[in-house]
């Protein structure tokens, strides 16, 4: 892919605010042909779309769609509208995600939080990609990209976020398998990038404390790193570098030693104790 998304159709989920909005701003700034925004927050989505249109260059269209990706049936219906009204996306950024509660697993809301988290974080990216992948594959002459926003939480367990960690671990396993399947089937125009970042200061993880060597990240550098990785077709983005180091140490050390070093010594297992969220 070229050095920008100019002329491409870019679809971003969770685009009304936070990181999703920032990815949308980047797409508009680079003069994408169309920037398709998905979010369940109708008011926030409308406001974001209006603000993006006010700065968009001629030739860049902004298309907001109110959709709750936790309702899997709504994904297919909205995808049909997008294909009919805008066209098949060249770039899909599966950014939408939620985190519920700050207690232990058995304190969650009778399984409802578990179900909703898994639907939005794990199943929705799969369903959305399945809707748009055939179009990407058919246009073999045109580069296509899928970016799946997972989390460093998906690479190791962490108290008070068991279901969130499970949902992101599912995304990591699926996303990397999808990448390999596309390569094996010789659909080389479609590249998949998996993102495993630590806490980002967007408000989603308000109250969470960055562990030693993994401070809470500013959004702008994360957007920049993910964007360049997406354009270059890089398979994995780990932020900060300590996320990769932690993954390596987990493979090398006995579990209890790893728990004491990373969990207790570096403070990872205490990072959600003061979590409040948005």
UniProtKB/TrEMBL annotation:
Record-linked InterPro entries: NAD(P)-bd_dom_sf, Sc_DH/Rdtase_CS, SDR_fam
Keywords in alphabetical order: Oxidoreductase
Recorded hits in Pfam families, A to Z, give: adh_short
Q: Which residues form a coiled coil?
A: none
User: Is-annotated flag, keyword Transit peptide?
Assistant: no
Query: What molecular function does GO assign, one term?
Result: oxidoreductase activity, acting on the CH-OH group of donors, NAD or NADP as acceptor
SUPFAM superfamilies in the cross-refs: NAD(P)-binding Rossmann-fold domains
**Family (UniProt):** Belongs to the short-chain dehydrogenases/reductases (SDR) family.
| Protein known as | SDR family NAD(P)-dependent oxidoreductase
Which organism encodes this protein?
Answer: Agromyces seonyuensis
């Amino acid at each position: 892919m070229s050095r920008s998304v100019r002329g491409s159709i870019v679809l971003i989920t969770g685009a009304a605010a936070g990181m999703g909005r920032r990815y949308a701003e980047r797409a508009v700034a680079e003069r994408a042909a169309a920037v398709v925004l998905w979010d369940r927050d109708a008011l926030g989505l409308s406001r974001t779309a209006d603000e993006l249109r006010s700065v968009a260059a001629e030739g860049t269209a902004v298309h907001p769609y109110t959709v709750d990706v936790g309702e899997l049936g709504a994904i297919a219906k909205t995808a049909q509208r997008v294909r009919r009204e805008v066209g098949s996306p060249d770039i899909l950024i599966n950014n939408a995600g939620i985190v519920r509660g700050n207690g232990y697993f058995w304190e969650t809301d009778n399984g409802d939080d578990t179900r909703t988290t898994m639907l939005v974080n794990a199943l929705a990216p799969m369903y959305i990609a399945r809707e748009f992948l055939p179009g990407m594959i058919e246009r073999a002459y045109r580069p296509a990209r899928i970016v799946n926003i997972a989390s460093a939480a998906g690479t190791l367990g962490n108290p008070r976020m068991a279901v969130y960690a499970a949902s992101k671990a599912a995304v990591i396993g699926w996303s990397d398998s999808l990448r390999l399947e596309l390569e094996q089937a010789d659909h080389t125009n479609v590249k998949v990038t998996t993102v495993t970042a630590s806490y980002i200061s967007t408000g989603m993880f308000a109250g969470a404390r960055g562990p030693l060597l993994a401070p809470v990240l500013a959004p702008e550098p994360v957007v920049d790193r993910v964007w360049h990785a997406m354009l270059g077709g890089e398979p994995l983005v780990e932020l900060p570098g300590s996320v990769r180091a932690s993954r390596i140490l987990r493979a090398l050390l006995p579990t209890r030693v790893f728990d004491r070093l990373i969990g207790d010594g570096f403070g990872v297992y205490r990072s959600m104790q003061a979590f409040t969220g948005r």
